[in-house]
Amino acid sequence: MKGTPVVTAFRSNEELAELKKWFYDFDDTRDHRKCAIGKVKALLTRGRLPHGIEATSILTSVLLRDDADDRNEDSNVIQLAYTMALIRFVNGLLDPFQQSNYAIPMQLLAKQLNLPTFFVELRHMGTHEALPSLDTLRIATKDALTWLYDNYWCQIENKSERDVDSATDVYAEVVTFRVTYNERLINAFSVYENLKTFKRLRKDNLEKPIFSDNNKEQDMSKVRKCVNDLAEVCKSDSDLLADLLIRKYYLIYSQEKLKTKGIKYNPLLEKLYRPLLQELGINLIESLYIKIVKSVEGKELGEINCRVYKKLGFSPMLLEGEIAQLIEWLPFLIKYILSQPFLEENFTKIQVSNRRQLFRFMYHSIVTMCSKDDSLLVKLLQLVKDAADEDLGSDLLDEINDRYDESAKRANKKQFELPPSLDEILAGDTEKRKLVEEDSMATNKKHKSSSGNEQKVYFMEPHENWIPTPFGMPV
């Protein structure tokens, strides 16, 4: 048996496939929508149904009532029915995601579900303002049913197909293997518990070294155990720990938390975790650097990685504010990588065999990553210049220095070049107008000289049959 058995109001996915056909496959000769609504009501007597099924039934019921064209029916009643159905549709989708201590804006939740935000606006109007017009409500209801078809009913059918023939999913076995392996590694070394313990103990001693003699012996032993366990994870899979630190929001804050705190970056995070990264060593820092570079360059995750991250509870997509925080970690990572004695076995991921190749790799990765940000490029290239020496060769040093000088000039030009003032803008417009007027006058003169007889033009010419009539008198 796969997974844990779940008690449902329906017997199988085939029953849902039949409901889908009744709700959406209809024409003038065949319409089973009323049967579908009755079926949903019967299923609700057995237990709870997924929101997609219940919402489809309610929205379809309102449409059928409106199509009945009962002339005695008050239009306000139809408006209220449409509005209430749409409110329940939106609330049922978004309310389960309101799980934080602070209310998340419904527009943000809607975007995460790929739900058009005008549904949220209609919900707000129906709850707090005047009711939307009937035409708007009819269109919105049909759009809601279309959205449910694409995002719920089609997924039900796909799930049924996967159950019948799981061999068509070529990635399933790989994803399952990687998820199982990663979960075993995380649980074997209690990664989450160790990170939590380290954070709690480190917060009280931010200004002291991680293993200071002034710390309590009991606390030091706990920190030592945390570091040793995490070091074992690094030996087995440093990429896993790097992904976990980034995508489970240890090294950075989530976008939501940034908005709550009203900040763009918290430097205390670097103070908190930098000693841990130094203790865990070059393999983890190399993995972190590579992953941050890929995120800044905007490289998308492959399908396998995306599915693995979702199953592990990692964030599969990093937002702009989260990537900006990762950039703040780059100076520390670059300094650490370039300051360590070179050992080829430490750099198997980037495949360099000597120190010169390492510097060239770092140089090219920084230039590619900062292709649209000269200020950041200057800042990071300065770190490379500081760590470089004559052993790297004059050609590489000259290349680094030349790129640094070019980027610095562009950055300074952008920084000190002031935008045009209002007077300059207006003066420029005046000069343009003068040129246009002079051109038009010149063309008029040419036209007059070419045509010998001038033709007079009247705005209001007299009409021979026109008779003045007082206002209000019949003509």
UniProtKB/TrEMBL annotation:
Its Gene Ontology cellular component terms are: Las1 complex; preribosome, large subunit precursor
Q: Which GO terms describe its molecular function?
A: endonuclease activity
Superkingdom per UniProt: Eukaryota
**What is one GO biological process annotated to this record?**
maturation of 5.8S rRNA
**Region listing for Disordered, in residue ranges:** 434-455
Task: Please identify the protein, giving its name as recorded.
Answer: Las1p
Q: Which organism is it from?
A: Candida parapsilosis (strain CDC 317 / ATCC MYA-4646)
